[in-house]
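Sequence only, no structure available. Ideas?
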Amino acid sequence: MRTHLCAQIRTETVGQQVTVCGWIKKIRDFGEFVFIDLRDSSAVLQVVIEPELLTTVAKCRHEFVIKVSGTVRLRPDNMRNEKMQTGLVELQVSSLEVLNTAEVPPFLPDDNQNVNEDLRLRYRYLDMRRDELHKKIITRHEIVRLIRQFLNENGFTDIETPMLTKATPEGARDYLVPSRVHPGAFYALPQSPQLFKQMLMMSGFDRYYQIVRCFRDEDLRADRQPEFTQLDMEMSFVEEQNVLELLEGLMQYLFKELLAIDMPAPFQRIGYDEAMLRYGSDKPDLRNPLELVDLANIFINSAFEIFQQAAHDKESRIIGIKLSNASNMSRKQLDNYVQFAANHNVKGLAYIKVNDSNSGREGLQSSLLKFMTDDEIEQLTKHLNLATGDLVFCVAGKTSQITEPMGALRQKLALDFNLIDLNAWSIAWVIDWPIFLFNDKTKQLESAHHPFTSPRVTEISALVKDPLASKAKAYDLVLNGFELGGGSIRIHNPDLQKAVFDLLGISDEEAQTKFGFFLEALKYGCPPHGGIALGIDRLAMLLTRSQSIREVIAFPKTLSATCVLTQAPSRIDQKQLDELSIASTANS
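Reply:
I predicted one. Tokens follow.
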């Protein structure tokens, strides 16, 4: 039907007879001649309609599907567009055929259109005709292609694991699938192939990977969907350094091939404790120059009771954030930041303006000054290296309650004051995670990653004695403040796995019910192994500079986990429910 794609029409094809097909993006009628911008999957091409075809073209409208044939020629010098992929040439059309008509679209698939996102999702097939979105989907394809190429060349085997599997506790709710042939029983869609990939290592497949769909029934955010795609991989006979080095090589390869950027390695390593202490986040944006600074030592003998109590409490801290050249901030702006902290459940955010750093107390402005001694002011000035024009936000409270909110404030301040180079890239590993976290609500231990993560301690007795002090052989890869993925060296010793289950309050009976097949496999010669999973959606979002992962997913869900295109999820009729032996309380 066609001889060329639009992108193939270049100066090399001048003088050739060609046929191209596509959608009408724009029509410009100059009376004697009509110009059409023709769009296909590869590019946009300008075609020139000669007078003898004006009757035919007069019936055409935006988004009509047409086939045109003619001669490629150079554009006149004053009409060339260097920014356009085919901007040096045009097609002089000798024949035009309308392959299909189109109704007036609810919006034109043009990058200059300001269209509500719900409308774009409702007509996603139109939205994906936009150049920007179309290119992002193509870039996502390139990312996956390059990942496969890199891993195939590094000895990995692509193996599929089941989509219908057993429900396992992974920190989020499973999507359940009823079984018609086993009434009352359910499959679960996988949150990850974790246990299967570990069993592949037990099966003697030295290096496994899979570009796999996973499912989690959890609340959505801009960078989260109920169904998502991840690069899942596992390696036998490796230590942490082996996994980190291979992933660094993969990321270097992607940046070089996609963005022509040489990403230096090894990547920065940051301990989990340090990341939380300095940045208030386990996925810190290291482009942000602001840090959380501990001020407890300054206020050991403070007359301000809240500060004094926090300074003496091992589970509390006093945090300061210094913002340069901001002492002229208005009261309204300051109140907005106080409210921002309150919205993150942090009350009592205070601030100190440095109007003149050489004037001591008289050069400062703050409601805290009445509680501060001259010595404390001097210590604070030296500790934060305060200069005229600086502004300090500070708060005291339980470490577990104020650290992450202050981390969020750190990021907001940096964005509001343009302290982050949005064109820069900062990639790092967050390592030395705790193997357990204490849940204040349930008053129980829970896995910081998952219960199959190996601790650094080699003696089970040491882990049992002080589980919260034990670190994990775990690592997260962080890019520009987003977690790309996480992994760990896994537990391959059955006794150690049982000890971890015991600490998590998982009884032997529960462990057998949920993981019996896996625990049995551990008994038959499990090699030391480890791996990682990277979010393909999030990676594509970042590499295309998108604001949301919805921009790099062909048919995404909304924040309410619905598909406005297909109107999913939808109710099931009673006949289907009866076949599945399901009674729905929502239908009653």
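Residues 131-153 form the longest helix (23 residues).
Hope that gets you unstuck.
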